[in-house]
Amino acid sequence: MSDLSESARVAELRLGGPVEPWSRLGFAVHESDDGPSVTVAGLRFRFVDDAPASVESAVTGWTLVGATRGTDDVDGIATRWIDEPTMSPAPENRVRVSSIDHIVIMTGSLDRTSESIDRILGAPRKRVRDAGGGVRQGFHRAGDIILEVVERPDLDPDTAASLWGVVFVVDDLDATVAWLGPDAVSAPRDAVQPGRRIASIRREVGLGLPVALMTPHVR
């Protein structure tokens, strides 16, 4: 287990896909020398020329904030490190997202990936959940964002970890779903977490990774 007093934080996900679907959905695009990006509740999505990581997700890697741990790989996830970034005001999105609930990581081995996250990010695993059907989930916290590591039985145990999807928190899920419309997002349904509801952005929208919208935590 890591003895680091503070975990690394996720500053950025890199997507090997186009930015236009995000813009059409109501997210403001920022152009810079590093290419186009969209910032959602402090998490930047940077669009790069890399080939998509997989058919399911175009996330090709992440950028972490914290003291460099001497690695550019977290159990197969391409990793960059930066010092504390200087945050310039991000353009306002039409889709109002209050926070990032969690980032989903797929893996063939929950224990192996969790060990890497603990050792390299300084973010120990908090708990494990048996989701049924041979699926296990492990939960870490990197800064304000939960990392949900999912072990799938259809993946070989040697399969490396990969960044798969993200869940946004919106204060008014019904209003957001109504504004986006049924062609863009599913109807809200009960989430696994008691008292919360969730809706999924449809794959046809083309965001490049699975994205869901969720109600806030129940206090």
First-to-last CA distance:
30 Å
Annotation, overall tally of beta strands: 14
Number of domains: 2
> According to CATH, what is the class of the largest domain?
Alpha Beta
Could you say what the CATH topology of the largest domain is called?
A: 2,3-Dihydroxybiphenyl 1,2-Dioxygenase, domain 1
Enumerate the strands of the largest sheet in spatial order, edge to edge or round the barrel. 8-9-10-7-11-14-13-12
Shape from CA axes? globular
Count of discrete alpha- or pi-helical segments spanning 4 or more residues: 3
- Rg: 17 Å
Descriptive overview:
The strands form two sheets. The protein has an eight-stranded mixed sheet with strand order 8-9-10-7-11-14-13-12, with helices on one face. The model has no long low-confidence stretch (mean pLDDT 91). With 219 residues, it is mainly beta. It is globular and about 40 Å long. The protein is built from three helices and 14 strands. It has two domains: 74 residues; 116 residues, 2,3-Dihydroxybiphenyl 1,2-Dioxygenase, domain 1 (Roll). Helices cover 12% and strands 36% of the residues.
